[in-house]
Amino acid sequence: MLAKKISVLLIACLGCTLMAQLNAAQLRDPTLPGDASGRVDVATHSGEQNLILNSVVKTDSSAYAVINDQIFTVGERVKGIKIVGIAKDSVSLADGRKLEMFQAVTDFKGQ
């Protein structure tokens, strides 16, 4: 009788532990930027791809964009999508999408 109660208690504890782990896996990392982070989901034929504009360097004669931690210029392709324009805080893509810098970064950058 005692062994049966201990077994039931042990199974209940294991079940609670598994449920807690499943719930923890669904939590969002609080250190990530919010929805206005400049992250754009781009759907292509090969599946869904995330493009993140990390930074932009623009001078009178040249412009570079760091997307997904790689450096690109106008005319190059990022994950199969051509870059058609680079502004001081955004990048325009051939599929009509526009990647923008995280607002807090652009506010600080100009000061």
What does this structure look like?
The chain is built from two helices and eight strands. 28% of the residues lie in helices and 37% in strands. A hairpin with a 3-residue loop joins strand 6 (81-86) and strand 7. The strands form two sheets. The chain has a four-stranded antiparallel β-sheet, with no helix packed on it. It has a four-stranded antiparallel β-sheet with strand order 5-6-7-8, with no helix packed on it. It has a domain at 39-109: SH3 type barrels, CATH 2.30.30. The protein is rod-shaped and about 85 Å long. With 111 residues, the chain is of the alpha+beta class. It has helices spanning 2-25, 103-109, and strands spanning 39-44, 47-58, 63-67, 70-72, 77-78, 81-86, 90-93, 98-100.
The name of the CATH architecture of the domain at 39-109 is Roll
Spans of at least 5 consecutive residues whose pLDDT stays below 50 are 40-48
Assign the CATH topology of the domain at 39-109. SH3 type barrels
Can you identify the CATH class of the domain at 39-109?
Answer: Mainly Beta
As a whole number of angstroms, the C-alpha radius of gyration is 23 Å
Spatially, the strands of the biggest sheet line up as 1-2-3-4
The H/E string reads: HEEEEEEEEH
Tally of individual helices: 2
By DSSP, the count of extended strands is 8
Average pLDDT works out at 76
Structural class: alpha+beta
Largest sheet geometry: 4 strands, antiparallel
